[in-house]
Amino acid sequence: MKSKLGNPSVAPPAFERSSGCQSHGLEIPNGAVVTYSPEGQLDTSSLSWYVIHILSYSWTCKSDTTSGLPGAIQAVVQSSAQPECSILLITDNTIQSHEFPQIIEETGVEGGAGVYDLSLEAIPTNTTVEEVTYIMKKFQELSRCLLIILSSVDSTFLRMFASIYLDSPFILWPTKLVVATRLPLQDLRKLHFAVAVTNSVIITQEEPQNEECNIYVIIPYSLRIVKTASWSKVKGLLVTSDIGLFPEKFYILPDGAELMAAAEEYPPHCKLQEIAATETTPERLEFSGPMLITLEILARSMNFTYRMVRPPDMSWGYQLPDGSWVGMVGMVLRKEVDMALGPFGINPLRKSVVDFTRTMLVDYVRIAAKQGKSEVDPWGFIMPLAPSVWAGVLVSLAVIMGIVMTLSHLVPLGDDSLMKQDGLAYIRVFLGQDVFITSGPWWARFMIFAWMLATLILTRSYGGNLMSLLAVRYIPQPLQSLRKVLDDSSVTMVWESNTEYTQYIMSVTSGIFHEVAESEKSGRMAYTTGSDYGITLENLVAKGDHVLIIEDLSLRMLLAEHFTKSGNCEFYMSSELFLPSAMAMITQKNSPLGPAMDERIKALTESGLYTYWINNAVPNSTSCSNPPSRITVESTLKIANIWGMFVMLGGGFLPPEQPSGWSGTHFRNFGRIRSLNFLPQL
């Protein structure tokens, strides 16, 4: 009896009765097998309930299932399935519904089981495809591990299922597939590729009168068919091949393969060199670097050769507004290549279309900028004191002179008093001139003493700072963070095009990275490629009005190469690190190559080999990692360094306009200058 799935809140799923069976764990009719008919309309709300309850059933049947295909399936499942796994049977009645519970009971599988019953007369439709896909997905979600048994003699349905199985993103390598059929092996050619690239075996019983069944494995890439075992009621399961029933076909490829790998220049991980054509060889690209060493180790240990290609747009991978992908990610997604080296930054958007291998390293983004010049500022003699200090000194001088002059008018003073010298005594003290005081009130003497003490401390501090400025020169490195770059409107940022960083920046709607994206509207963002890092550094960043924003390791490599060529460190790296990214290689979605590569990559990274290769690939890597912002010099000063002082001195010799009522005696004390504390060390 076949029927649609019922409403889970009203009635349980439909059952198909068979004699001689009992169910345990749930009160259902004797001998019931839970089935689902493709003739009914799929109800996804009830299907979730349906699958959950299938996994809670267990059966015991007394019917004979130890002959033909059922017996072979039972033997294969019993030898391969783990006890906690679930089993899903998709059948067109090649295996009778009442035979399946016996298979489950004999294998000892405790993870539960379910049946999708496809009638022989049913014609596979799009609805059937959706139903099969949905049921497999539900079982995969609810199971710790899954074994799927596909039993059919319908070649059309087998081809359809192969397409579904290959395109299902939830089918992983641990999921095992047993294809059981009575069709001749040569009629299953369109199924060979799907079986070859998945964890699958084929069981055939080509002669119904002969109960013997053969089990085959198809080798990936070569599609060579290997008979791994046979089964008969008398002899049972006999494994005839060293590779076993479900071999790890991709851990070491039995017949080898030529794989396609994409790469783009990404120093220090991957270097690219264009080799010019000769009379005997065409122009070609030569790749090198730690990523190529890693690929070579993977190739030797997994038994494959490889051919390198470069993405036409020379980019990593970026999703366009129409949903398509460009760059190396797009090439892997479209299966134009088997893998791409990168390493690529791992993010959810990319992970939805490709698979990442084990993390190889974690890198950050940093800013590279041009260092300032270390020349002496001709007006540097003003720099020992901050503008606020100069202002405070002048204000204090004016206030003190105002107080003393006010008091001198209120209190009668003698002819030789301080204030009879027109109040210039405080200015003379500040300039280091002598002052004679022979009489005067105590408060006048106290005021001049306090001013002398403050001036002494000020001039000594000025002299010490001036000496330091002349001997230790400061090299400006102002752009130490992304905020500093954004605040300086004269600076243009250069990012690498079509990367996870630019895609992330363009996707955020608030925060500092949104400000970065908005700066593109004002022309403050430019783009480059990994191959043009050096050109960008020397032609744009060297001008001082551009900064290059790339990964930390790539930046260290770039500055080291520049130091090797020029012998100096003209650029500096920001102290701020941002946009951390775990990085790895990428493979096609659900590709079994990924798990096989992970174990090798784990060994390389945990042993420190990849870090070692990185360090060796970057000579002089530490030379410009932390360039000094201050340097000590012993060279003599030149006129070009101190002409500002002579300008000020010349300004002091200009004859001033004499105020009315003043006489020459007002300036008599200027002739007795001892020293100018503006230049105490010169």
What this model shows, in words?
By secondary structure, this protein is an alpha/beta fold. Among the domains are: 15-239, Response regulator (Rossmann fold, 3-Layer(aba) Sandwich); 380-470. It has 20 helices and 28 strands. The strands form seven sheets. Strands 13, 16, 19, 20, 21, 23, 24, 25, 26 and 27 form a ten-stranded mixed beta sheet that branches. An eight-stranded mixed beta sheet has the order 6-5-7-8-9-10-11-12, sandwiched between helices. Strands 1-3 form a two-stranded antiparallel sheet. Helix 1 (44-54) crosses helix 4, helix 2 runs parallel beside helix 3 and helix 5 (155-167) packs parallel to helix 6.
- The CATH class designation of the domain at 15-239 is Alpha Beta
Q: Given the helix and strand composition, which structural class is it?
A: alpha/beta
Q: What is the third-level CATH name, the topology of the domain at 15-239?
A: Rossmann fold
CATH architect. name of the domain at 15-239? 3-Layer(aba) Sandwich
Task: Give me the count of strands.
Answer: 28
CATH superfamily of the domain at 15-239: Response regulator
